[in-house]
Design goal:
The two termini are 42 Å apart. The strands form four sheets. Strands 4-3-5-6-7-8-9-14-13-12-10-11 form a twelve-stranded mixed β-sheet, sandwiched between helices. Strands 19-18-17-20 form a four-stranded mixed β-sheet, covered by helices on one side. A two-stranded antiparallel ribbon has the order 1-2. About 2% of the residues have low confidence. It has a domain of 91 residues: ANL, C-terminal domain (GMP Synthetase, Chain A, domain 3, 2-Layer Sandwich). Helix 1 packs across helix 2 and helix 6 crosses helix 7. It has 413 residues and is of the alpha/beta class. The longest helix has 22 residues. GO terms for molecular function: ligase activity.
Length: 413
């Protein structure tokens, strides 16, 4: 907890020391990385600062999947004594992340730091929206009601989730941004009696300004957004100053790249991660497709942790159209909020010139809604776009349980 208050230069020194440690370990014990080092003629002692990481090649999800277990885990790893986190990513191919006991403890400490720092107490009633498959056995201290989350299923309908929240009467609500948002919208219709959280943390998905505004208006509480990925856990988070996202630089190195080179502060770049504490399954220069904007500002809260400003979502939610323009997923919250009759939506880019828009009817849906959707999209993205609109009862979730408003099947070169 104290480390977050170190000066930036002190945290830089901590990060570089941890980085050099994990690189030496990976070279000595992990065949995948030993081969990557050797293929470039670069060795751990050549990496003396974060910038030197650019001498090494990226690691992809396919690299890790194809190397599991013998080429990504150190020899002699006993999986029966490890914590294994599983996900089905957007490809539907199972992905396993392995943590040893020490790694798991560090990961959980990093995950709890923003909650504790922002006011969560040991015995707060804590409601967490998650997939039932993510519920794990309680630790000994949780049986004493210390940091004991009560789980609300992502897959329940909002009315059932509201009943669960009323039974929990949470001090803290935590979980997928889309689920909290849908509950907030429903509560605006039914009232919030029995649900009065002191803190709300949104996680796992892009939190749009419209979603934030709805949640904050409903509950009368600021939303504190947290960011991460299943492979590395929580990596960045908002404090009450809302000046950006504090990067957990004593747990991860986050590079922001465009065309393989670091972007300047304030510029958009694809985020590449190097984990600093998981010696059981190291991830070095791991690219997952997240896009964000680094910042060189200092947060008024006084923490020395570096900041990132904007998280724009997954790169496969960006869409390239025939004229070469690339659209951020944020465009959809701007376009669609002005169109009456949309309860919920998802845009799927099937081809560079074709979109399929799934729409759940809102209360003011009319015969004019679909033509307006098509007109607005064509006006923004080009008249050559073919826009199909399908009315559905509900928006399907990804295999991971997330509801994403935009997905592209078109590769952006």
């Amino acid at each position: 907890m104290k480390q977050q208050w170190l000066k930036p230069e002190e945290l830089d020194a901590v990060q570089v020391k941890m980085l050099r440690g994990i690189l030496k370990h990976a070279y000595a014990n992990v065949p995948l990385y030993r081969d990557k080092f050797r293929s470039t003629g670069v060795y751990p002692d050549d990496i003396k600062c974060v910038e030197d990481l650019q001498k090494l090649p990226l690691t992809t999800k396919n690299d890790v999947q194809e190397s599991f277990p013998s080429r990504i885990l150190p020899p002699g790893t006993d999986l029966s004594r490890c914590w294994i986190s599983r996900t089905s990513g957007s490809t539907g191919i199972p992905f396993r992340m392995v943590y040893g006991t020490r790694d798991e403890d560090y990961q959980k400490a990093v995950a709890l730091r923003p909650n504790l720092s922002c006011g969560q107490n040991l015995r707060d009633r804590w409601a967490v929206f998650t997939s039932p498959s993510h519920v794990v056995k309680k630790k000994w201290f949780q049986k004493l009601r210390i940091f004991t989350p009560e789980f609300v299923s992502l897959f329940d309908k909002p009315d059932d989730q509201i009943q669960a929240l009323k039974q929990i009467n949470p001090d803290v609500i935590d979980g997928y941004a889309s689920s909290i948002h849908l509950v907030a919208k429903r509560l605006q219709e039914t009232g919030t009696d029995g649900i009065h959280p002191r803190l709300i943390y949104s996680t796992s998905e892009l939190l749009t300004q419209d979603m934030r505004r709805c949640i904050e208006t409903t509950f009368g509480v600021d939303v504190l957004d947290q960011f991460g990925c299943v492979e590395l856990g929580r990596t960045a988070w908002e404090c009450h100053e809302h000046a950006g996202y504090h990067i957990d630089c004593d747990a991860v190195v986050m590079e922001f790249l465009r065309d393989g080179s670091a972007v300047a502060p304030g510029e958009r770049g694809e985020m590449v991660y190097t984990g600093l504490y998981n010696y059981t399954m190291p991830l070095i220069r791991y690219a997952v497709g997240d896009v964000g904007v680094p910042s060189d500002e200092i947060c008024p809260c006084g923490r020395g942790l570096p900041l990132m400003k904007l998280i724009e979502g997954r790169s496969d939610a960006f869409m390239k159209v025939p004229n070469g323009q690339i659209f951020s997923p944020i465009i959809w919250t701007v376009l669609m909020r002005e169109i009456p009759g949309i309860g919920q939506f998802k845009v799927i880019q099937e081809r560079i010139d074709r979109l399929n828009v799934l729409v759940v009817k809102g209360s003011d849906f009319s015969g004019a809604t679909i033509p307006q959707i098509q007109r607005e999209i064509k006006a923004a993205m080009g008249e050559e776009m073919v826009v199909d609109v399908d009315i559905v009862e509900e928006i399907p979730r990804d295999p991971s349980g997330k509801v994403r408003c935009a997905v592209s099947k078109v590769e952006i070169q």
